[in-house]
Structure formats: C-alpha cells, structure tokens
Amino acid sequence: MTLEFEKITDNLEEMVRSTYARQQQSRLLVERLLQKLRDHAADWDGINAGLEQAIQRVDFKKFRAARPLDHDEPLDAAVDPPPLPAQATLIATDGSQILPDRHAPYLYSLINVGVIVYYHGRGRLPLQFTEPALDYPGRNGQAATPPAPYEAGEEAEQFADSGAVVSLRRDRAEIETLARIAHEQQDEVRPLVALLDQRLLYWPAVGTNDPEGSRVLHGWQAAMSDVRRAGALLAGYIVNPGKRSVITLLHTLDVNRPGFDLRILTERDAQPFLADNILFRHLLEPGQRSKVFVDVSQHNQDFYHRDPLNEVCFFYLNPGRSGRQIARVDIPRFVAQDPAAVAAVHALVYDQCRIMGDYPYVLARADEIAVVGYQDHESLDAMIEYAMQRYGVYHAITAKQSAKNVARAGKTRHEV
Length: 416
Description:
Blueprint: H1 9-39, H2 44-57, E1 65-68, E2 88-98, E3 109-120, E4 127-135, H3 163-184, E5 192-196, H4 211-229, E6 233-238, H5 245-252, H6 276-280, E7 293-296, H7 298-306, E8 312-317, E9 327-332, H8 333-336, H9 339-356, H10 361-370, H11 374-390, H12 399-407
Parallel strand pairs: 2-5, 5-6
Antiparallel strand pairs: 1-7, 2-3, 3-4, 6-9, 7-8, 8-9
C-alpha cells in the first residue's frame, strides 16, 4: 500500500504556517542580536563579566557558550580569505559501516574508512584508499558472549551487536586513521591539514560512564594529540551547524538585567529555531570567516584537562557560491593560537569548497571512497556464505526476515 497523501494534507498546511511564523519571529530576534553584537563588538570587560556571572548562576553541565579567543578581532569580524599557500598537503578521512543484523545468516559488522591525501599545487594525483575492518563473535579468540564488561582503557574490544557501538567505533577509526596517515605524510609539503567531516568536541552518545563511550572518547582525544605531534593542522568541518554558543554569549550580557530568565542560557527549547549560523549568514560574505571563539562547556573542560592544546575552538565560514550555507570549522587550541595556522586552514578549506561548491572536495571524496553500498553489502554476504560452506557451516535468515522478503517481492529499494 502506498502512502495516502490526502490524509496528511491538513498536517502539511499547519507545518507550513508554523514554519512561516517561526521565520518571522526569528527575523526579529536576529535583528536584535546583530545589533547587540555590533554594540559590544569590543566590549571585552562586559563580555568577560557576563560570562563569569552566567557560569556562577546556572548549571554548568547544561551551559554551552563561546568566549573570544583573543582581543585582536571584534565580535562582528568578517575576515577575508588569506592568500592560498603555493603548495600544501591535505588529508581527509570518512567512514561507513555495515551494522550487525541478527536476522541475517551470519552476525558481523564492518567499518570502512576512506582516505584521501590531496597534494595542493603540485600537479600530483591524490592518494586514495580504504581501510576496511570486519568484526564478528569470536574474533581474535574472543568468547562469543563476553563473560563480563571490560574495564575502560582495556586494549581488547569485544564484538558488539549494537549499531550504536559500531557507529562509535567508526568515529574513533576515522580520527585514528587520520592521525596515522598524518604521521606517514609528515615529510610532505607543509602546511599539512588533517580534515574531518565531524565536530572535534566529540562526546559519545552513550556517555562516558559506559565503558565503550569512555574508550572511544579517550581514543579520540589521544588521536587529536597524535595529529599535533605529526605537525598537522587538525580541523573539523560541520555543515549546517546547530550550535548557538555565540548567541548564548550575547545573552550573558543581560544576565544582571532585572527579570532576566536564566533558562535562556541552558534550555535549548527557549529559542529552538535560532542558531549561530543564522546570525553569521548576515555578517559573512563568501569566503569570509568569523572571529575565532573558544567553546565554553563542561565537555571542553574535559578536553582541556587531558591536553590543554586540545581545547576546542571554532570559527564560522561562508564556504561559497550561494552565500546562504554557513559552516563551522572546529580547530584545537594548538591551531587556534597560531594566526598563520588559522590562515592556512581558512584558505585551504575555502579553496576546497570552491572546487565542489559549498563543501570541501577532499571530504566529499573521502565519503565517496568509504561508502559501502547495497551491492557491496550483498557481495560481502556472498563471500561469507561461500567461505562458511567450505567449512560445512550453514545458517539461514530468520523467519521474520524471510517473511519480509516475500511480502516485498517485486519491489525495488533504492539508496540515495
């Protein structure tokens, strides 16, 4: 049975009306915030005082704000793209996965990391390859069912039949591969930029009390330090970012005003339709970046305590042609505190966006290399089936999956 569109017509109309009303309300709020940004563009004493007062008066676990990295540029700075380095080396990684399926004949998962090394200005073809890793019960002599949860920091990893855990491990594999390739390429032309399609202030969705979450977080932070030791400039590129850290910073300027509602500093649903990118859409022309900010949050404190040079900073970037798509570029403090390094990341990331149009070419290519499509999945299943049969091992899909296959017979599923 196909979707009965006529039954959702009223909902659709209400959705449009609601979206229009939120846009109108957003427009008024953005105008006020832009004026506040300009009025306090270099009010460093007021900015610091507002932040300190806010931190003392709210639950810091829920607080997400921004702090100017320095006083060299005003809050409303729009920095033009600097000249491109004549030569440079860019590394990007991205990951894909096959999640474990208990209805399939054999239980396994796959993580596939795509890697590209791009030799800017050298007339040399990019280096491109993948690093697949198959995981399954009993790998490396593991018991199919772990006898007890492992301790955080333990080297061996048990097979996980949870899609959430596989996704966490994919994220860790992306940055650890990036760090390793940066070491392998450290004798190439500088600047050497290591780029992820991911925020740098990584925090596992399962939390850090979960052993897997703790393991992935520690691995992530160690890989950030490894990138620095390789002499590479680490950056994370985020499309359509939802952060409202700078907006929260502006709100802290009113923290001592009578009647000020502190909830606006910690509760996202206080203004659910506003994010920093909407603000900077009005400030930045194509190619321009914002001032560099430091992320103010409990999570970033954790990064700082483990390695002060990994404290996550960021700037907003207008990446190109349409002028409407504002991206966020995360950089660790070891990059942020070096103006030449910030200029190199700014220039090279923007140049990569000009190749594709609003998105870095190396990240698009890394994703293309990494993706495991439907045909790849089927081929791998066939390889596993053939290999199992050579050992006389035979399994079948579950009855539930068999029934679904029958019900959907003759229907084609497409991937985008």
